[in-house]
Predict the 3D structure of the following.
Amino acid sequence: MAAQELLRIEGISKRFVKPVDLAGRIANMMGASNREAVVHAVDGVDLSVAEGEVVALVGESGCGKSTLGRVIAGIHEPTEGHVFWRGQDIAMMDSAARQAFTLGAQMIFQDPMSSLNPRIRAGEIVGEAPRVHGLVDAAGQAEYVATLFRQVGLDPEYRRRFPHQFSGGQRARIGIARALAVKPKLLVCDESVAALDVSIQAQVLNLFMDLREALGLAYVFISHDLGVVRHISDRIFIMYLGRVIESGRTDEIFREPAHPYTRALLDNVPRLDARKRSFSTVKGEIPSPLNPPPGCHFHPRCPLAGPRCSVEVPRRTRLAEGRIVACHLADGGVAAAA
Amino acid sequence: MAEPVLAVDNLATHFFTRDGVVKSVDGVSFTVAPGEVLGLVGESGSGKSVTGFSIMGLIDPPGRIVSGSIRLKGEELVGRTEAEMRAVRGRSLAMIFQDPMMTLNPVLRIDTQMMEAVHAHEKVSEKAARDRAVQALAQVGIPSPEERLSAYPHQFSGGMRQRVAIAIALIHRPALIIADEPTTALDVTIQSQILAEVQKLCAESGTALVWITHDLAVVAGLADRVAVMYAGRIVEQGRVDDVLDRPLHPYTHGLIGSVPGEAMPGKRLAQIPGSTPSLGRLPPGCAFEPRCSRAVEACRAGAPPLAEGPQGRAYRCINPVPAEEAA
Ligand SMILES: Nc1ncnc2c1ncn2[C@@H]1O[C@H](COP(=O)(O)OP(=O)(O)OP(=O)(O)O)[C@@H](O)[C@H]1O
Ligand SMILES: Nc1ncnc2c1ncn2[C@@H]1O[C@H](COP(=O)(O)OP(=O)(O)OP(=O)(O)O)[C@@H](O)[C@H]1O
Ligand code: SF4
Ligand code: SF4
Ligand SMILES: [Mg+2]
Ligand SMILES: [Mg+2]
């Protein structure tokens, strides 16, 4: 790939400790032994994003997409592993370089309503961070904000309104303008269009593509909607219970998914041209991340699982340039290991 | 054609709020035949849920059905008392909500709730009620239902809770089920499992289904017919193939074009400009006119009349999308 690498993460894990809840503590007093539980929200993930590239993270609820996105945006410290911004490990950065990373990677959240302070006017929501960080002075702020409003397709006249006075699509635009205000190179979009009606969603997706074109922005695009992901991304990382189980170019993965879970996901995407279809189903529930199955996390639901799958964690196997899958089928088969 | 299970005719449900009258549903007509699945689609606030609640007799003040008729197997539901509606609900008419906790009581065990649902409309023994509950859970794909019966709702995952809610809706083999976005909050593989179960159940039992969603792709996979709502009215309806392959109303056409994954990856999506109108302040003519690229002078004059075609095809538009553009 010709484009310059912007961000790379290596061996990232993030664990959360879930303390024992009140009911559990009371039960403990009566002699039960509830202990705090550890969630492996993200488990050993490698990933890179080039300048101007759109990388998608997909997978079902609880698989660790948001957690990984927060690590990438510098909001969470990883429990293990390294984050490199323009080749430099952020843990080793001096404060100037760290500031460049902090502003350079911005996150846009799922629900624009809850991430916008309801008592602050839209203009100040967008204009505050660039002023605080010295990107504009107080005199230039109004003009700067007006430019950002126009960039995301909002009338600058709206800057005196409060968040609740906007429609869902407009609020999403304010969240985007706020992120753009600090001149980022990378936007981490966490389900940013999930709550929007399809006609409004199309407006926001078009805006993301326009901004990429105009500003050379890179994106980490988190979504469980494979239609959206197919439309907008260059590469996909598919996650299952904290691990990346397949990654590669979007068109190649849609053409020829390698991992049984990826295949199941793609088979189950509702499509306009699939009429009155029979829904092929993956059996079983998504297991709890508190207690993931051993070996391959997908084995209890996998139609192709063999004896090896429940004991051995599949290694990452390279299928082709830039194409990686973690499944025993691609690495010697599912029969019991010798 | 078989006699419809449900015939909604010119239904209007309005909310009389302090800020004025909200015409959430304003002249809606459709029918559903036995075993048929009707997809009711439209954007947020278009009146899908209020239509569903009206049929169920669940509209509370300041809302009221102001006119029209709702006939279930030929019998008029509009004007019935709450007690009369309670006798219908759960037996010949059931609803599944987006949030299964609308159906389930968090502090009662699953078996208690399911047996209560059986006893609400049938005098049978405890044993028989329990058997029915087990059978209903098995039907919606819950493994080892006998063991799961003594659980509380919070011990189930979201997908499992939704299955239980569906099992309760199915207990009396109702003639009609109204499902209001029941899989929207669920993951793709779990959504598929539930759609497969529902499809099978309707085919086997002849239950008619109204499936409310904003997801056209789900409708494509599940429904026989589709009705598209905009600002309280059905602007287009017909067989799924007819409507999706050859949309006549510009709003339907725009909706289809804005579904990502169908347009060429990386290309701009067809977007509908503007946003959903406020129902209190609709334009005098066609409600879609401010956002419509095909609008002509006449569209501002009055509400477009209903044009009807063969096979239940109907639409409200003065200047419909020509065939060359529809594809
Ligand atoms: N702050 C936290 N404390 C404890 N557990 C957490 C925390 N954040 C996330 N988790 C857990 O980590 C796992 C991954 O969560 P995450 O939010 O990253 O998933 P996700 O893929 O974004 O899911 P969704 O699609 O539902 O948003 C979940 O089991 C979640 O409960
Ligand atoms: N109790 C109420 N009082 C006043 N207005 C109401 C009330 N209930 C619903 N409405 C209005 O009726 C309109 C239609 O609402 P409805 O819930 O049917 O929309 P919907 O199509 O189901 O949308 P969504 O996809 O968001 O669920 C909305 O404008 C809503 O604000
Ligand atoms: S490793 Fe085994 S269980 Fe896992 S996806 Fe591959 S075949 Fe299925
Ligand atoms: S009636 Fe006119 S404004 Fe309304 S949808 Fe048709 S062309 Fe557009
Ligand atoms: Mg998330
Ligand atoms: Mg609704």
About this structure: The radius of gyration of chain A is 22 Å. DSSP finds eleven helices and twelve strands in chain A. Residues 5-330 of chain A form a domain with the Rossmann fold fold (CATH 3.40.50.300). The pocket of iron/sulfur cluster (ligand 3) is lined by residues A 259-260, 296, 298-299, 302, 304-305, 309, 314, 327-329, 334 (CB under 6 Å).
